[in-house]
Amino acid sequence: ALVSLRQLLDHAAENNYGIPAFNVNNLEQVQAIMQAADEVNAPVIMQASAGARKYAGEVFLEHLIKAAIESYPHIPVCMHQDHGQSPAVCQGAINLGFSSVMMDGSLMSDGKTISTFDYNVNVTKEVVNMAHRVGVSVEGELGCLGSLETMKGDKEDGHGTDAEMTRDQLLTDPDQAAQFVEETQVDALAIAIGTSHGAYKFTRKPTGDILSIQRVKEIHARIPNTHLVMHGSSSVPQEYLEEIRKYGGQFRTTYGVPVEEIVEAIKYGVRKVNIDTDIRLAMTAAIRKYFVENPEAFDPRAYLKAARAASVEMCKSRYIAFGCEGQA
Ligand code: G3H
Ligand code: 13P
Ligand code: NA
Ligand code: ZN
């Protein structure tokens, strides 16, 4: 059944677990997420970015997610819009039947310029007002995702900022977070703690100086009743990189957010964990392997089946690690 983000995250908070929010762009990803959730009886958050809407078309995405809900009536599914750049974009998603929207006011609507706190509060408040009227949840974002190794922002949605940033901008301030939540009444708050989008997050396995789980604890201590969201939370498993390289792909040395660090953050209020890159890596590794082992293959069903199966395993392992098993 379609449920709001608020319903899912309230249950997660009451029962001390976190929920992976997987990005979806096509049929096989939607199917993989549902099959994994079904196998472990986990609740589902599926999210669509602007890039996903551009790739698939918003009506196709809408109906893919609705097909998932119809096919698995016993699984609660939140249909979430990822990184909405303006109230108009969020209104569009609400009109399509999404049960949750993210108003990302950390950047201006050009998706590049870092916004002011007041701008962020105002646009987020506007979205909360229109969304709550119709039972739709809202995720806001305070702070700028980016790297504490390079002190640069990350290009959210592929067209964000790569501006130079200060440590203060790259780590969400607990007092500001409290003021932001108080003024906007968001249902969930995305925070900056050193993660960034995409496959290249860290040049080494991250330690506390470049991935601040400590900051999660400080924010949670200040706003214990707010559901926290971690973006850029793919783990970039080395096994996928090795498999991609082994079967003809190229990948620079890179590290993601270790699953055990996410599990620690879940003890301190993180309830939604955004994952896109890990599905991309799982699919790519499986497809490369399939083509090398089956050079004469040309039926897309064959290699997409391999990609789907790899995605099921990845999703299942995140559901289990984050404590979702049996929570649907
Ligand atoms: O926000 C970033 C997500 O990974 C979505 O990526 O904009 O390429 O669809 P995308
Ligand atoms: P990853 O690139 O780490 O998968 O992050 C996805 C994300 O935050 C989507 O909003
Ligand atoms: Na989001
Ligand atoms: Zn994100």
What does this structure look like?
The protein is α/β, with parallel strands linked by helices. It has one domain (5-321): TIM Barrel, CATH 3.20.20. The chain has helices spanning 5-14, 27-40, 50-56, 58-71, 87-96, 117-133, 167-170, 174-184, 213-222, 238-246, 259-266, 277-293, 300-321, and strands spanning 19-23, 44-48, 77-84, 100-103, 137-142, 146-147, 152-153, 188-191, 227-230, 270-275. The strands form 2 sheets. An 8-stranded parallel beta barrel has the order 1-2-3-4-5-8-9-10, surrounded by 10 helices. Helix 8 (174-184) packs across helix 9, helix 10 packs parallel to helix 12 (277-293) and helix 12 (277-293) runs antiparallel to helix 13. The termini are close together. Bound molecules: glyceraldehyde-3-phosphate, 1,3-dihydroxyacetonephosphate, sodium ion and zinc ion. 1,3-dihydroxyacetonephosphate binds at residues 23, 82-83, 197-198, 231-234, 274-277.
List the helices and strands and how they pair.
Layout: H1 5-14, E1 19-23, H2 27-40, E2 44-48, H3 50-56, H4 58-71, E3 77-84, H5 87-96, E4 100-103, H6 117-133, E5 137-142, E6 146-147, E7 152-153, H7 167-170, H8 174-184, E8 188-191, H9 213-222, E9 227-230, H10 238-246, H11 259-266, E10 270-275, H12 277-293, H13 300-321
Helix pairs in contact: 2-13, 3-4, 5-6, 8-9, 10-12, 12-13
Compact description:
With 328 residues, the chain is of the alpha/beta class. The protein is 47% helix and 14% strand. The protein has a single domain (5-321), classed as Aldolase class I (TIM Barrel).
